[in-house]
Structure formats: structure tokens, C-alpha cells
Amino acid sequence: MELVDDRDDGREEREATAELEGRFEAFFRSHYDRIARAVCRVVGDPARAEDLAVEAFWKLWRNPQAYGEKAGGWVYRTALRLGLNELRQSARRSRYESQSSGGERAPTPEESHAAAEQRERVREVLAALDARHAELLLLRSNGLTYEEIAAVAEINPSSVGTMISRAQQAFRKEWVKRYGEQ
């Protein structure tokens, strides 16, 4: 009669888990900085952008169907959408606070700078756009090629130029509506 060593039952599972964790950590290290910078451009707050980037990676960890060759695009798109959601929540919160206080809040010193005002206006216009248009503009502004945009946005590569052009037109129309010709 041969005795079986029960101590080895979980070893293969532990090894598989360790390998998965190692691959995930390498993936995280190779993509985190780029994703955090992209989200920072959306929300304007580096600390909050880092939190949202980590949240996108957490969602990737919990969603095994996203693994594979498209995981980079999936986590990038998820992070940008989290940033856009944050931007919309912030705009909504500001609108409600200004309505409840009976007036507009006093500008902070940072808001007095022209560059900061310009970035804020861009964020407001992006928040007002259709999510698909905002996503395409953000992807393009982050230097992605048409092929990369097609992979991230899950659209036909031959349609990317047309869709970006439409997104730019929608941005311009919303900008003129809000701030006039400049």
C-alpha cells in the first residue's frame, strides 16, 4: 500500500496563484504611471488620479475575463471612465453647492491663473460631452495612435478618424455654447 503525501495538495494551486500575482505585478508596474498621468489630465488632481488608477487595476484583478492581450486597453479605458465619472460627480457637486449657497463660490488663488482656468473649462466641456466623444478626445490627446484608439475603444480602425473629427466638432460646439468664440 502506497501512502500519499497530503501536504502537496495545495502546492500547485499556490504556485499558480504566485505566478498570476507576479504577472499582475509586472503588468501593474509597466502600465500604472501612464494610466495615472492620463487620469490626472482628466481630474486635475494627481492624488485622486492615483487613487482612480489603482481602482482601475483593482477592477482588473477582480475581473479575470479582462486578462489577455487586451488587458492594457481594458484597464486604460476603465481608468479614463472612472476619471470622467469623477469629473461629472465633481461638476454635479459644485452645481448643487452653488445652488444651495445662493451664489457662486469665491475663486481660489489657483483659479485666478489663466492656465488653470483654461484647464477647468476644458474639463467642464468634456464632462458635458457624450462619454464616447470625451473618451476619444482623451485617448487622442494622450498620444495614442488610431490603431491603439481603435483597440481601446473597441471600434473599427477605419472609423477612428471620422469619430475623432465628430468628437472635436462636438467639443467646439459645446465650447462656443459655453464660452463663445475665442
Describe this structure as you would to a colleague.
This protein is mostly helical. It has seven helices and no strands. Helix 1 crosses helix 3, helix 2 crosses helix 3 and helix 3 packs across helix 6. It is globular, with a radius of gyration of 22 Å. The N and C termini lie far apart (89 Å).
Keywords:
182 residues, mainly alpha, Rna Polymerase Sigma Factor, Chain: A, Arc Repressor Mutant, subunit A, 2 domains
Describe the secondary structure blueprint for this structure.
Elements: H1 11-43, H2 46-62, H3 71-101, H4 114-128, H5 131-141, H6 146-153, H7 160-179
Helix pairs in contact: 1-2, 1-3, 2-3, 3-4, 3-5, 3-6, 4-7, 5-7
Overall pLDDT level:
82
- Net shape: globular
| Beta-strand content bin | under 5%
Uncertain stretches: none
CATH fold annotation of the largest domain = Rna Polymerase Sigma Factor, Chain: A
CATH class membership of the largest domain: Mainly Alpha
- Radius of gyration over alpha carbons? 22 Å
Considering DSSP H and I runs of 4 or more, what fraction of the residues is helical?
Answer: over 70%
Number of domains: 2
Number of helices: 7
Per DSSP E runs of 2 or more residues, the count of β-strands stands at 0
Summarize the structure.
The chain is mainly α and 182 residues long.
